[in-house]
Structure formats: structure tokens, C-alpha cells
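Input (structure):
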């Protein structure tokens, strides 16, 4: 994976009229795949997966959420909420004239919740596929709810979180060594060093984005008959624990089967899932080749 260094924090793609940095690669006639990263990452985390998809003939759009990577920060902190992130993606796709094009979505962590919010607001007009990698949105509130309520503590919490960034990144990996681990750690260090807005974007998203409680939107997405879904999770995920989140996503997506009068069909008939043992929140970064193989197998048209 190519990543920034102290000598060259160079923007690899282009910027939209509204300041969103994006990279669009692959054949123009290829099936479009949109990659949405998580709360503290940026588009480069999908570089290896995007490369594998392009090699299979897909056209891939990677973009940086506002304030992350090379994208401009939000005008107001409240824009780091769900509506602001949905609008950012919608504006980007509209500007690139990709909004009405058939597309699939791959989304990690907070990006998974964002994908659900986006599809709920802009339902696909063509058969589509959704890949959710350890998605947020249905997790337990944990310390997030009291953090949002105690604004007087925000300054202290920011200082504590900033000083603990390195340790938090390491928790996403079970195996804390090797080339993939070192590349991702350096990529995160580069962003924190060279993008002065990235930490605030992370923190304000934690305050304003619906990391939990999107049951209504998830249920709406689960009812979309033209949408096929693949959920992947690492058993040792500490950032978005698999339990109880996975069962909640399952419940929303099995509702469609019940309404279609197939109560005897197993869950996998409505949505596929793949759970990795000895893998954490960044499982697709720890083993990019394995993740790419599973995702590509799901995305390929069925006979």
C-alpha cells in the first residue's frame, strides 16, 4: 500500500466542488463500487481492496469523509452528524454523475452505519449489493451517551483520546506486527500529523453521528428487495463488538424473509455473513487478500 510519509503527504486524487477528496479508478464501463471508511480512518485504508477490485474489472470510488484524509472539514461541528455525512456522499455522486448509476457499497465501522443512512435516504434504483465490515449503528451506547451529555468534559476527554490514539489504533489488530500492521499504523500517524482537522472530525463524529440507535433505518434497508447484503466481522473486535451488534443487523435483515413468506429459510438466504476467528476491528486490513477474495466472490453476478 502506498501511504504518505513525512516527506510527501500528497493528495492522491481530486477534490470535488464542495471539498471532498476522492479517487476514482478502474474501467469506465466497470460496475461501480463505493468504499466508505470508518470514523478515524481515511480512504487509503481501502487501497489494497480497491486494487483487487480494479483487477477484476470494477470501477472503484474511494473518498475521504469530511475532515479526514484530504477532504475539507465540516463548516459546523453538527455537520459531522448523520445528515451531513449523507449529504456529502450524495453531493459527490451527483457531481460525478454517478448517482443514478448501478452501484455496490463496501463500508467499514461508522461507514457501515453511514451506508445504511444513505440507502435509506436514497434507495437504490437498480439491484445493488452492500458489504458491511464490522458496521456501527446498532452497537450499545457505552460511554458515548454520557460523553454527549457532559459537554463540560469534552476538553478533558479530547486530551485523553488524543494522547491515546496510538493505543486505540493498535486495538484494531489482533496480530500487532508485520507489514500490514506497520503500514496501517504509519498511515494513521501520517494523517494525525499532516491533517490538523482529522482529530476534531473524529471527535465531533463521536458526538454527533448516530453510532447506535439506527434501528429504523436498518429495518428500512433490510426491506429493500433489490439489495443483497454481506456482513463480515472479527470475533475479537473491541471497537464495535460483534455481540450484540451482529444479531441486531441479522434481525433487521431477516424481517424481509418473513414478509416474503419464507419463514423456514435460514438467515443466509436473505443476507450472507462471514465471521473471522482471531480477528479484530481491522480484520480486512490484517488479511487484505482473504477479505478481497470473499468480497469479490459476493459481488460477482450470480449465474
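Output (sequence):
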Amino acid at each position: 500500500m502506498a501511504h504518505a510519509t513525512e516527506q510527501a503527504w500528497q493528495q492522491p486524487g481530486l477534490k470535488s466542488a464542495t471539498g471532498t477528496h476522492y479517487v476514482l479508478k478502474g474501467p469506465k464501463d466497470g460496475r461501480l463500487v463505493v468504499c466508505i471508511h470508518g470514523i478515524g480512518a481515511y480512504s487509503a485504508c481501502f487501497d489494497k481492496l480497491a486494487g483487487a477490485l480494479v483487477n477484476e474489472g470494477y470501477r472503484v470510488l474511494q473518498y475521504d469523509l469530511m475532515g479526514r484524509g484530504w477532504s475539507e472539514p465540516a463548516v459546523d461541528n453538527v455537520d459531522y452528524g448523520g445528515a451531513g455525512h449523507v449529504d456529502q456522499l450524495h453531493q459527490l455522486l451527483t457531481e460525478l454523475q454517478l448517482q443514478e448509476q448501478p452501484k455496490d457499497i463496501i463500508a467499514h465501522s461508522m461507514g457501515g452505519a453511514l451506508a445504511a443512512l444513505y440507502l435509506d435516504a436514497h434507495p437504490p434504483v437498480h439491484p445493488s449489493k452492500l458489504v458491511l465490515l464490522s458496521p456501527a449503528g446498532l452497537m450499545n451506547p457505552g460511554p458515548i451517551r454520557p460523553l454527549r451529555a457532559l459537554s463540560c468534559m469534552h476538553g478533558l476527554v479530547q486530551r485523553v483520546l488524543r494522547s491515546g490514539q496510538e493505543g486505540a489504533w493498535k486495538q484494531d489488530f489482533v496480530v500487532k506486527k508485520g507489514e500490514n500492521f506497520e503500514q496501517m499504523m504509519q498511515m494513521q500517524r501520517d494523517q494525525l500529523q499532516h491533517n490538523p482537522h482529522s482529530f476534531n472530525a473524529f471527535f465531533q463524529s463521536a458526538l454527533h453521528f448516530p453510532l447506535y440507535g439506527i434501528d429504523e433505518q436498518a429495518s428500512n434497508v433490510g426491506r429493500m428487495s433489490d439489495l443483497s447484503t454481506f456482513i463480515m466481522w472479527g470475533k475479537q473486535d473491541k471497537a464495535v463488538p460483534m455481540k450484540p451488534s451482529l444479531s441486531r443487523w441479522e434481525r433487521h435483515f431477516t424481517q424481509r424473509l418473513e414478509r416474503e413468506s419464507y419463514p423456514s429459510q435460514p438467515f443466509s438466504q436473505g443476507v450472507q455473513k462471514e465471521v473471522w476467528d482471531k480477528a479484530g476491528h481491522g480484520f480486512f486490513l490484517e488479511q487484505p487478500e482473504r477479505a478481497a477474495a470473499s468480497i469479490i466472490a459476493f459481488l460477482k453476478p450470480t449465474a
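Notes: Residues 232 and 274 are 5 Å apart (CA to CA). The chain is about 40% helix and 15% strand.
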